[in-house]
Design brief:
Helix content: 25-40%
Largest sheet: 8 strands, mixed
CATH topology of the largest domain: FAD/NAD(P)-binding domain
Strand content: 25-35%
Structural class: alpha/beta
CATH superfamily of the largest domain: FAD/NAD(P)-binding domain
Oligomer: single chain
Bound molecules: flavin-adenine dinucleotide
CATH class of the largest domain: Alpha Beta
Number of strands: 16
Number of domains: 3
């Protein structure tokens, strides 16, 4: 049986980053991925910020950054707020492969087409059984997504509240704006969530929706029909769905000899459903802490909890964004329309990303409707 310091399960953004950080910190590391290829195996809008590349330590090369775009957030009446910050539309597969290459360069072993079937604690070590072999490790990092096998095996049963999403990749689009990612809010368009159009190129777009308490595909088809001019002749070349954990972080994601990161632990910004950056940050923090714990010979839950200190800025952002989401989900379309007239781009960025929400709350505190409905909830 091969033994490692660290076994990372799952090679999404969280897993490749954890493997890289653990290997860089001189831990003997194995990254296991059940799919035949390290790539964006799960559907994803593949939109992210420029700072994600800085965090990941990846050069924003043209082969990975397919398009650059600013953002528009549309109220139900189709009036919008424009956010001039430019973000990236990426080839997530190549992005993940770049981080995996850095992990390999740092010394990590990588096995694809190897599914982890069970994980258990045996005295002071962890055992990992896959479809091909059995391993031992000092620590297992579960980065295996929302339906985490590692979580189940470690007895972690809590799941962050999911929003079901469906996304089409559409070709032969006639997009009105190829340098804008568009987000559409409203209870008629996407109850409990939002719909999006992300331009990958002039003719290719990712068109998706997340809704709660309603059939996502039905709403997505209705949404596509609203854009007859732009999407009327477009064809769907990819149609997939997956849950996004938007209910915030689960309470217990660290146990003796094990830690969950990324979607498996609800490390997603709730209001936007964005999880690439937060998962990479979690992977880097976890890999570093776990490697240190292995070197010190203490892989207890208490020792691994240093992760929380390293991840604190993200924990705050996730919690604040959740607070905003809970307040906004109670709004009627009329209230959302009114809010669009009161908020500027900075306000929206702060609210969506769980940044300076107190500032926005203070701005709304004197408003006859939003003082009670929003500002007080945010404070
Ligand atoms: C439709 C949709 C659109 C999205 N759009 C965006 C966006 O535009 N921007 C953004 O920032 N976020 C977006 N997200 C969220 C983002 O994709 C995730 O938050 C992020 O990918 C989570 O990374 P992760 O590494 O935790 O998990 P995942 O990306 O889910 O990766 C988990 C990996 O583990 C592997 N695995 C699972 N089980 C096992 C096992 N037993 N053994 C071995 N391997 C296993 C899987 O094959 C997979 O490769 C979107 C999500 C969805 C569903």
């Amino acid at each position: 049986m091969s033994s490692y310091d660290v076994i990372v399960v799952g090679a999404g953004p969280a897993g490749v980053s954890a493997a890289k950080a653990a290997a860089l910190a001189d831990a003997k590391t194995l990254l296991l991925e059940k799919c035949p290829t390290i790539m964006a195996n799960k559907p994803c809008g593949e939109a992210t910020s420029q700072t994600t590349f800085k965090t990941a330590g990846v050069e924003p090369k043209p082969s990975i950054v397919l398009n650059r775009a600013y953002a528009r957030v549309y109220a139900p009446n189709m009036k919008f707020v424009e956010i001039k910050d430019v973000g990236f539309l990426i080839n997530k597969s190549l992005f993940l492969q770049e981080i995996a290459a850095q992990a390999a360069e740092a010394g990590a072993d990588i096995h694809v087409r190897e599914e982890v079937l069970s994980v258990w604690r045996d005295g002071d070590i962890m055992r990992v059984k896959t479809n091909r072999s059995e391993y031992s490790a000092k620590v297992v990092i579960g980065a295996d997504g929302y339906n985490s096998t590692v979580a189940r095996c470690l007895g972690i049963n809590e799941r962050s509240e999911p929003i079901p999403t469906v996304q089409y990749v559409m070709v032969n689009c006639k997009l009105e704006c190829t340098d804008v990612v568009r987000f559409f809010l409203g209870n008629d368009i996407a109850p409990g969530g939002y719909a999006w159009i992300f331009p990958k190129s002039e003719k290719i777009a990712e068109v998706g929706i997340g809704v709660r308490g309603a059939p996502a595909k039905l709403y997505l088809d209705k949404f596509v029909k609203m854009f007859e001019k732009e999407l009327g002749n477009a064809k769907i070349i990819d149609y997939r769905g997956a849950p996004v954990p938007i209910g915030g972080m689960i309470k217990e994601y660290i146990v003796d000899g094990g830690i969950l990161i990324g979607d498996s632990a609800g490390m997603v910004i709730p209001l936007t459903g964005a999880g690439i950056h937060s998962s990479i940050a979690a992977g880097l923090a976890a890999g570093e802490v776990v490697a240190k714990a292995c070197h010190e010979g203490d892989t207890s839950r208490k020792r691994l909890s240093e992760f929380n200190e390293k991840y604190e800025p993200w924990i705050m952002r996730i919690n604040k964004s959740l607070k905003v989401m809970r307040a906004l989900e109670k709004m009627t379309d009329e209230e959302l329309n009114l809010l669009q007239t009161l908020l500027d781009a900075t306000d929206i960025l702060d609210l969506a990303n769980g940044l300076n929400i107190k500032r926005v709350a203070m701005k709304l505190l004197s408003h006859p409707i939003f003082a009670i409905k929003l500002a007080k909830a945010l404070l």
